[in-house]
Specification:
Blueprint lengths: L1 H8 L10 E6 L8 E7 L5 E9 L5 H15 L8 E11 L2 E10 L3 E2 H8 L3 H25 L2 E2 L8 E3 L5 E3 L6 E2 L25 H4 L3 H6 L4 H16 L20 H7 L10 H7 L6 H10 L6 H15 L4 H17 L8 H8 L4 H7 L1 H7 L5 H9 L1 H4 L5 H12 L8 H14 L5 H15 L5 H13 L6 H15 L6 H13 L6 H14 L6 H23 L1 H4 L43 E2 L4 E2 L22 H8 L36 H10 L16 H6 L8 H5 L32 H7 L3 H5 L29
Helix pairs in contact: 4-7, 4-9, 10-12, 11-13, 12-13, 12-15, 16-19, 19-21, 21-23, 22-23, 23-25, 24-25
Protein name: Protein kinase domain-containing protein
GO molecular function, one term: ATP binding
InterPro entries: ARM-like, ARM-type_fold, CIK-Related_Protein, Kinase-like_dom_sf, Prot_kinase_dom, Ser-Thr/Tyr_kinase_cat_dom
Length: 800
Amino acid sequence: MFKFLKGVVGSSGGVKDLPYNIGEPYSSAWGSWTHYRGTSKDDNSPVSIFSLSCTSTQDGRLGAARNGVKRLRTVRHPNVLSFLHSTEVETVEGSLTKLTIYMVTEPVMPLAEKLKELNLEGTHRDEYYAWGLHQIAKAVSFLNNDCKLVHGNICVASVVVTPNLDWKIHAFDVLSEFDSSNPDSGGPMLQYDWLIGSQYKSMELSKSDWALIRKSPVWAIDSWGLGCLIYEIFSGAKLSKTEDLRNTAFLPKTLLPDYQRLLGSTPSRRMNPSKLINNSEFFQNKLVETIQFLDILNLKDSVEKDAFFRKLVSLAEQLPRQIVLAKVLPMLAAALEFGSASASALNPLLKLGSWLSVDDFNVKVLPTLTKLFASNDRGIRVGLLQHIDQFGSSLSSQVVDEQVFPHLANGFSDTSAFLRELTLKAMLILVPKLSQRTISGSLLKYLSKLQVDEEPAIRTNTTILIGNIAAYLNEATRKRVLINAFTVRALRDGFAPARSAGIMALSATSLYYDITEIGTRILPSLVVLTVDGDSDVRSKAFEATERFLNLVKQGFGQVETDGEVSTSLSSTNTAGASILGWAMSSLTMKGKTAESSALSTNITSLTVTNSTENITAAAGAHEIKVSKVQTDNVSTKNITESSVPSNGWGDMDEDNSADDDVDKDGWDDMESFESPVPSALSRIQAAQQRPVQAPPRVSSTNSVSSAEEETFFSKPPGNSGDYLAQDDDPWAAIAAPPPSTTVKPLSLSGSRVAGPTRVRQAQHVSIDSVLGKKSEVSGRGRGRAGPMKLGAQRINRSSD
């Protein structure tokens, strides 16, 4: 016998034919039913399981239970309990055969227990009760007016509450059609009316006056039940007798008139539930209005939506906190996820989500935010990036790497400079959660393009980001990327704050460079900037130069103790990689570039060494100027050629374009200073292949022309637009177009091009400034020769 029962019931706490596990029961349920907690065997999702057992097939409760299951399966309404599954199980206990009906529904909780758990008081209690009664009145109106059905037993026991705190009715065992075809019939209309407690029966129902019931409105019986429900929820006690309904001391004054009309002694004069919904002053409160607005959000225009979401946060602070988190927040998340809400709803979602615990936030809010990264709405994308510091740390590494970054990366190439900047800054939070494959294969390629962005603020912050994420790069990537990104691009940028950012990034990442790299690549690049035209760049260059010189001295100081030169600075460099602050303010959205408009920059506080250094850089109304640098028989061009190798960032060699088809991240093809010196034969052959060109002459004033100045930031051969479109090799031979602005060199003399002729002289440079002498008249009788064009030219020689 035991084996038979085990096969029928199962060994895991559930019925064999029921794909759900039965848990602990609740303390109360309607009628003879028992309400259990339960879970699905498939996905462990929560459910509610109702069971009713009878020992005889002739038991009337069995027929009523089957009627309730059938009715609940066929009646569908948002405020009617959702049916999932049902089954009947027959078991044998001794000489008795026991028949049990199981009905599975969505997870709910008895109303009486939920009200005790919430323990609301005052205005918050009345607002929530108003919302719950509003839902039940809608369900009863649907049954009576639309379906012509009579529930028969509306009370606290027949109402359950969902996890979202919605009220729903069930207990359809007594539910029957309203029979008005034969008003003179005296037969019972409710087949199972004996299941209704006497305290819940109206006067005509307690007398079984079926003729009067048939002549009365269809809602007469259930309107009486609504009055009983109102009494029980406000009194906090179960109705024990009908006479207790006369006690109204605890009812709100705005609800009292409707309560009396629901319990009218004359059935035909009782209030229709539909009028209770529309006319009652009790339902006109902030909570009901807020939820109703979210329910019909699709029908609202954009102006109404924006106005609603702007005041939602302040409104939510006045509502019951438990109701807001359980009801309003999920509705808001669903509206954003399915597109009915605008971008203005994102701020209330994050604000209300901050009231949740970490675990609840990860369950209720974070999945919605993750899906929103795939949205094409630019406003939503901007909102996510602006508030990513609030939820970015909660995202898992797998979610960021597989779901967030592929969509977020579109912002790197967006046409909006503001969105590109926000995307760049968001990576500081998300990079620790990215895999090395994503960082090396995707992120660095985007950053290589942003280092030559047309907006100087983006170029500057890209350099700062690379310095901040250096700790998350593997050693091989750091060797390939850091020095090239800082010295070749950042230190040569025409925008002074960008050069300052490059210097600070080098200092902050000094832990990752060995002595050889410092001596041959970093120091030569820094020394050039000690004569920079910007005072802030010069001061930072001097500090960084002194810092790196000390590191080299410390490294060679170990020779006396260790007996050999250690190229690694891991033991001597104790500063570590510090976090750099964003150097630039947010971009304007007026369509003007930062070079042509007055751009205010603010370099925030930065920790480079053990002490904190407050750095402030202000660049206002930058103009393209031509200045002459007085040097002692040494031109800028000579400095460039001697200190920086020909690697594609400065003067481009013609052979560099042959490597454009290599799939690299932009830093792979950088030539190092340790490259072997070409032989004399190779230099002669290379010289023979160059076009014939007049040799430049240094003027008597030792000035550097603007043409020579432009070679410092020369553009690569080919179309720059084609370069930016190459995804396979965005750093092809470092052939990215340089920034449009030019370096403002330090003027050691008082001579300066005055007035508005500066720009014109930068655009049109005469041959006099290049060759240092006046152009001669060529030809016979042909007048004065026109100005020569800059650059290499073929000279056509003809024999006279």
